[in-house]
Amino acid sequence: MPEYLSPGVFIEEIPGQKPIQGVGTATGGFIGRAERGKIGKAELVTNWAQFVKKFGSFNPDYRLPYAVWQFFAEGGTRCFCVRAGGANSKIAKATVGGLEFTAASEGAWGNKIKVEVTAPENDTFSVRIYYDFDNNPQPVEVFEGLSADESHKEFVEERIDEISAFVEVHVPKKAKVAKEDGALADGDDGQEPAEADYIGDQAKQTGLHAFDRVDDVNILAIPDWQSGNLAKQAAGYCENRGDCFFIADPDENLTPDANGIIKYKSQCGTSAFGALYYPWLTIRDPLTGHEKRVPPSGAVAGIYSATDIKRGVHKAPAGVIDGAFNTVTKAWTVGKQPVGRGEQDSLNPLGINVIRTFPDTGPVIWGARTLAAKIDPEWRYVNVRRLMMFIEESIEEGTQWVVFEPNDRNLWGRVRRDIRAFLLLTWRSGALFGSTPDEAFFVKVDDENNPPESIDAGRLVIDVGVAPVKPAEFVIIRFTQITRSSQ
């Protein structure tokens, strides 16, 4: 309490409403193979050029670059990427001009790096980095005015390690810098990543667990590996987090029947935090100009992100408008035929989201069901699950100030007011069903759900109910003939 000891005018600030901000829902997360990049480290990427700088460009053996390229081309705005790697990978290195250089990440790509150290002048020198693009070494980085003295403001380790996308440098004790050029060597990609490398290790924070330190990731995909067990594990990871959703890819050559995609779906688990899309897609390969088949997750993740931004997370990422692709030319099965309506009649009820092809629109996403569609109708639709994730996380983060506040009716009223204000905005955006706010949601914080024994245990219970909008999956238009009445 403030003290008033002498006459005068005293100004006090009374705490007002604490608005709850909606969390992001459109950030992608990809794990896959790439030419370079730290193995097991999540890196933020905001455009295709930035991905190329950090992870390298298209490679016919890697699907990650194609998936990220499609993500941005379909309307995605930002994503985190993790390079997967197998055992025995090595970093290229060399001692040049008295300095120890290593590639910025593991892999044979580092063997394409050449370093040139100039002769010292006035105790400073320069380092030039060259990279071999298709047997054509090109200068990519130049650092001038460097010093091997760690007390110097242009200390070579601090300058290069903080900036260079290609190398890191170490100054040995009593090093004498001299003019020399040389190539890095002994870099090795190691073994190809296995399924366990994509699932990762929680203690080492590899694979999926590389995202453990990243709060702002919402849409996960693993385009370089397809299996029912991986889909089950990845969706389970998302469910444990409660704030992200997994897009599962099928095997490439699956038929649209019980022996193909239906059998595969049965191995993917029944989590509502994942969805399966079928079949693979055909694109025009930016690398060769020829047709190339790719798994659908990269393009679908871009559709998710674009729909969230344009319409909101409550809108199903499907349909001839929001579900239409920019990068896809065909969506054919292994029999080189698009999936027809008859085939989808058996796939859709099982939670297999089909990518259909229509004459006027081309390939479009024509399904919006989760892996739990058949066993848990409450979480049948992708947009309903993701909308609830958005609401739950937004309210969780927006009510952190409540912890350790006095648990009285004044606090109850403030909490009720803040949550209702957030849900009112959510309802006005079209995300909740109801002609009035009372039909769309409720917030209950009173004596009934907070009896004295609950308060004594240090608990504040807040009951929130919402009515999410459901997609118009089946549109039935009924026609009848009318007879003109006689005059």
The share of residues in extended strands comes to 15-25%
Query: What count of helical segments does DSSP give?
Result: 12
Please state the average pLDDT score.
94
The end-to-end distance, rounded to whole angstroms, is 86 Å
Features of this protein?
487 residues; alpha/beta; Rossmann fold; 3 domains; 24% helix
Outline of the structure:
The protein folds into 3 domains: 28-85 and 194-383, Rossmann fold, CATH 3.40.50.11780; 93-183, Immunoglobulin-like (Sandwich); 404-487, no CATH class.
Question: What would you say this structure looks like, in words?
Answer:
There is one protein chain. With 487 residues, the protein is an alpha/beta fold. It has 3 domains: 28-85 and 194-383, Rossmann fold, CATH 3.40.50; 93-183, Sandwich (Immunoglobulin-like); 404-487, no CATH class. 24% of the residues lie in helices and 20% in strands. It is built from 12 helices and 20 strands. An 8-stranded mixed sheet has the order 2-3-1-11-12-13-17-18. β7 and β8 (137-146) form a beta hairpin. α1 runs antiparallel to α2 and α2 (64-73) runs parallel beside α7 (297-310). The longest helix is centred in the C-terminal third of the chain and has 20 residues, at 409-428. It is flat and about 95 Å long. The relative contact order is 0.12.
